[in-house]
Amino acid sequence: MAKKRRPQPRAAAVQIKDAEVPVVGAREPCPCGSGRRYKACHGREAAHAVTELVRRPFEGLPGECDWVALRELVPAATAKLTLKGGLPEGVPSVTLATVLPMAWPALRRDNGAVLLGLQNDTSSGDMSRDLADTLQRALTTEPGHPVAAGRAPADGPRLQDLLDPDAPFEPTVHTGFEFWVENAENATPEVAASLERANAAAIPTARIPGLEGAYWCQAPEKNHLRWVTAHPEEQLLDALARLHAAGTSSLGEGTRLVGSFRAHGLVVPVWDLPSSMGADEVAAPAAAFGERLAKALATDAPLTAEERRARGGLTNRQITLS
């Protein structure tokens, strides 16, 4: 005989406010005091928030393509952030960083400067809102301390509400993570160990000057160019198919357009490059390709049979990261 379910206390037993309910394991008792498991109580609302994915969380920010690249492609990079209305007293600067030691969401330096980590897990489907919440908490954190992970309120501001829309977004790519500390020699053993591990795992990467979202990286057998674009997906795939069918989709001898992937609502074409082709050597061919792509994007004639086959091949090789 099946066991009868034990009656659960009613919601009247709630002892703390919804906004104060922490995240716990799905099968653990909900901290609100209802007597139900977290996944059947306040976890249900949290799970619903996760499913409501914002397809382009960085849309409307200057340098959207570079934001996506720093989130998904670039190991070590920083970019200065400009807040609307200026910096609060005691905060000399705010800097976006691809990743921080021990995967901290943010860090307040001893001098009050803020570092905001981009490559972190987020608690909702809106990365922009999660990052904005972390940034706000970092601005009021005591200097010399990291910022703990948290859950952003559903009605909280987004990065688009906090950052100056007229300020340029200019990433600086680094060869390592020494930017974590003002003086690497004085880093704590924990941070020093994390720094050493991160530097060992970082893939050499460089930003292509003058081409938003274009990044070269060095791999063991061949190098790559990955170019985050903001063109509408269907229009971009048509344009790439036209160039591919015409034999003009490569970046020179030994290079090949191998496909594309989606990341945060944007399409990222990828080229294989010879291992001898560095970032400096790919800059001019990439710029020339950009001109060919612009012409192909302006063409609205129906695709030919050969172009449709090329488009099908590109589509079949497309994956989605987010």
Task: Please tell me about this protein's structure.
The chain is of the alpha+beta class and 322 residues long. Helices cover 29% and strands 16% of the residues. It has eight helices and twelve strands. The chain has helices at 42-51, 64-72, 127-139, 159-162, 189-201, 233-245, 279-297, 305-316, and strands spanning 77-81, 94-97, 106-108, 114-117, 145-147, 172-173, 205-207, 214-217, 223-227, 256-263, 266-273, 319-320. The chain has a six-stranded mixed beta sheet, with helices on one face. It has a six-stranded mixed beta sheet with strand order 7-8-9-11-10-12. Strand 10 and strand 11 form a beta hairpin. Helix 6 packs across helix 7 and helix 6 (233-245) crosses helix 8. The longest helix is centred in the last third of the chain and has 19 residues, at 279-297. It is globular, with a radius of gyration of 23 Å.
The averaged pLDDT comes out at: 87
Strand order of the largest sheet: 5-3-4-2-1-6
Percent helix range: 25-40%
- Taking the alpha carbons of the first and last residues, their distance comes to 46 Å
Structural class: alpha+beta
The major pleated sheet works out as: 6 strands, mixed
* Quantity of strands, as a count: 12
Radius of gyration: 23 Å
Low-confidence stretches: 1-21
Number of helices: 8
Task: Summarize this entry quickly.
By secondary structure, this protein is of the alpha+beta class. 29% of the residues lie in helices and 16% in strands.
